[in-house]
Amino acid sequence: MPAHAVRPSLPAMDTNPTYQGIELDAETALALLEWQVEMGADEPVLDAPVDRFELANRPRPATPAPAPLADLPIQSTPQTSRAGPDPADDLAVRIAEAEALAAAADNLGALAAAQEGFDGLELKKGARNFCFADGKPGSRVLILGEAPGDEEDRQGRPFVGRAGQLLDRMFDAIGLSRAAVDAEQALYIVNVLAWRPPGNRDPNADEISVSMPFVRRHIELAAPDVIVLMGNIPCQAALGRRGILRLRGQWAQAFGRPALPMTHPAYLLRNPPAKREAWADLLSLSARLETLSV
């Protein structure tokens, strides 16, 4: 027996425990146990040794083998598709809705109401105001811009910030103004997007596609003689091409009308030397208007 082991010969604590034939009360039994602990006995042992290896080798009760998978009952569960709605289908639905609304508008007021009420653009949820147009409908020149910026979103009118102020000065130099009453000297200004993109980011391809039915109908109803494509986004929307520095000054056809790509006034504010090319484009526009008047 180990030096610090003690055989627990004390019986279970009952009403009259005994120790070596002597009847013990609870206090005496506890005192004997405390004495053994004080003597260093800290490990109880049994009267006979236990062979742990024999216990490990003892056969365990047999458990039934699992049934083969083929014998298990098959429970049918409804098949659910994890795939969400097809984005392409959703885009097609929104474009079709925009086309139907635009086609039903027989004047600019009806078109404005239809476009403002259209919920197919998420941009609408984050914008302050709807920017439909500015200037005089029926003007000979229609300027197609990109999208409202912060100041445009605040006022609900296109081209009213710093870039808009420069645009006014540019066209005033060739005798055109959005404030003019006479259609011969007036401007009409529209954007590809009527709602401001967050952070003034460029419109994405889906946003342009959904907006184009309204833009086409807008141009049909305004009936300008020529269109100025002011920047990359209008060129992408009208011509399917980008690269305004290569396209500027080169006349093209858009919406069945002569179209002149020009650099956006915001670009001219960042790059003043480019104003020379912009002036050449304005002179080209003025000459084209004179030709169409003959």
CATH architectural group of the largest domain? 3-Layer(aba) Sandwich
Distance between the termini: 127 Å
Spatial extent as radius of gyration: 44 Å
* Strand and helix order: EEEHEHHHHEEHHEHEHHEEHH
Report helical residue fraction: 40-55%
Number of individual domains: 2
In CATH, what is the homologous superfamily of the largest domain?
A: Uracil-DNA glycosylase-like domain
In DSSP terms (H or I, runs of 4 or more residues), the helix count works out at 12
Largest sheet: 6 strands, mixed
Describe the 3D structure.
The chain is of the alpha/beta class and 294 residues long. The chain is built from 12 helices and 10 strands. The chain has 2 domains: 48 residues, no CATH class; 207 residues, 3-Layer(aba) Sandwich (Uracil-DNA Glycosylase, subunit E). It starts with a strand and ends with a helix. The relative contact order is 0.10.
Write the layout of secondary structure elements.
Blueprint: E1 5-6, E2 18-19, E3 22-23, H1 26-38, E4 43-44, H2 52-57, H3 87-104, H4 108-117, H5 123-126, E5 134-135, E6 141-145, H6 150-155, H7 162-172, E7 187-191, H8 205-222, E8 226-230, H9 232-239, H10 244-247, E9 252-254, E10 257-262, H11 265-270, H12 275-293
Helix pairs in contact: 3-4, 3-8
Question: How would you describe this structure in keywords?
Answer:
294 residues, alpha/beta, Uracil-DNA Glycosylase, subunit E, two-stranded parallel sheet, 42% helix, rod-shaped
